[in-house]
Amino acid sequence: MKKTVIVLSIALLTGVMGNTAYAHTNYTIDKTTINGLHTANRYAEVKDIIITEPVAGLFEKNKTIYLKADRLDFEDGATVEVTKGNIRIKEIEADRDILKLTIEKASSEASEIKISNIKFYLDGSLADGTYDLDLITEESEEYANNVFGGFYEQSTQKGNHVADSVILIKDFVTISTTPRDKQQTSVIDRNAVSITVTEQYPQENSGYLQNEIIMVPLRAVVQNSYNTDAVVQWDDETKSVVVRLGQRICSMKIGDNVVNVNGVITPMTAAPEIKNGRIFIPVQDLAYILGISENKIQWDSETMTVTLN
Fold first, then answer.
1. Helix (H) or strand (E) holding 168
2. pLDDT, tens only, 59-68
3. Of 2.60.40, 3.40.190, 3.90.550, 3.40.1000, which CATH number belongs to 5-176?
4. What is the dihedral of CA 138, 4, 54, 74, to 10 degrees?
5. What are the pLDDT digits (tens) for 191-201?
6. Between the CA of residue 216 and those of 46, 184, 195, 197, what are the distances in Å?
7. Which helix H or strand E contains 266, and what residues bound it?
């Protein structure tokens, strides 16, 4: 899957906020796909963040990178790994909504840093919606406007022209608080569909098991369920698919574990993926798209067949 690469210009802060020093630098960050989370899970893990130096030595010794989550608290346990180059990371530390990475030694070879095991605590006060990942920085408002070109936003301090943070990854996570069974609505009449499931690479119009999740072919199931009443549209440029079932319109993107059903964004069991030129999604998520309650999913472990009634 092609990743969106964001090129930013930032000021890295030292670990002592009261004695701030700045090292103006450029770096790139691979934008993660959307992380769909549900407040039913108090502790939720999101996808890795990759930070890359375009040239060696841009992250200076003893400098700290501050990543700030929008209204979310990081849990302890995040890990950092140097996957390219020879930069050394002294530590990674979670402090409520701030994730701090301290540089132990600057690189002599352009390096890549991977942040993994990123987890949030989701309390009951969070509302449905999207939440950003910010980079704490200080730059002129005009500079931020020129760099981010309107696609990214920045908050500004009142009374001066300094941006105290910029949005590093917009819509970093999507939060859903409403149970799926209360979101589901009936759609047009449908046929029961049975899909054979294999444990390895999927055969024609069959599903497969992946990490104990049943993945089923989207188009085959939708069209067999609703005959000519359903429309499945694929956009190769954006790697997204739209399913139209009467007044019910559903959209999702390969690699993003959220689905939009009539404007309601809901986390998926797993992200859609392409196998053998076809789109596969978890059977529970396809049932939700089709307006089928999960208790209508029947699994026969002997015949390796899943049926949507």
1. strand 162-176
2. 788 887 778 8
3. 2.60.40
4. 50
5. 555 666 666 65
6. 24, 20, 7, 8
7. strand 264-267
